[in-house]
């Protein structure tokens, strides 16, 4: 992101940055046995890095009072996938990607 933020490279999603870095690391460590699909899955593994498939312990009345809106340095789609995987009850997701 430093290169993107400094204007050295055009704006791009964090997924693209992570994917490029993963490909560089695979070459660096001589890993050549992965298929494109496996690399895609590995590149998106952090989408599933939540607390596991659980549900919020908030009651309906608490949910109507409190709003949940993370502001991560991850991409929007990555946070949506993380919320789905982990069962997170977010009302809104505001990401660096949204703000560019």
What does this 3D model show about the protein?
- This protein is mostly helical.
- It has one domain (2-99).
- It has 6 helices and no strands.
- It has helices at 2-6, 14-28, 36-43, 60-65, 76-86, 96-99.
- The protein is flat, with a radius of gyration of 17 Å.
- The N and C termini lie close together (11 Å).
- The model is unreliable at 51-56 and 58-63 (pLDDT under 50).
Labels describing this entry:
100 residues; mainly alpha; 6 helices; 49% helix
Number of domains: 1
- Fraction in beta strands: under 5%
N-to-C order of helices and strands = HHHHHH
Low-confidence stretches: 51-56, 58-63
Q: What is the CA-CA span between the terminal residues?
A: 11 Å
Task: Look at the structure and give the mean pLDDT.
Answer: 77
Structural class: mainly alpha
- Whole-number radius of gyration? 17 Å
Q: Outline, from the CA principal axes?
A: flat
How many DSSP helices? 6
Set down the secondary structure blueprint.
Blueprint: H1 2-6, H2 14-28, H3 36-43, H4 60-65, H5 76-86, H6 96-99
């Amino acid at each position: 992101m430093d290169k993107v933020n400094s204007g050295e490279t055009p704006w791009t999603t964090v997924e693209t940055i992570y994917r490029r870095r993963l490909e560089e690391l695979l070459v660096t460590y001589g890993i050549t046995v992965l298929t494109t699909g496996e690399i895609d899955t590995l590149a998106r593994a952090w989408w599933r890095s939540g607390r596991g498939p659980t549900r919020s312990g908030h009651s309906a009345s608490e949910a109507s009072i409190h709003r949940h809106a993370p502001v991560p340095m991850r991409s929007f789609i990555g946070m949506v996938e993380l919320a789905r995987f982990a069962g997170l009850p977010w009302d809104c997701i505001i990401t660096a990607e949204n703000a560019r």
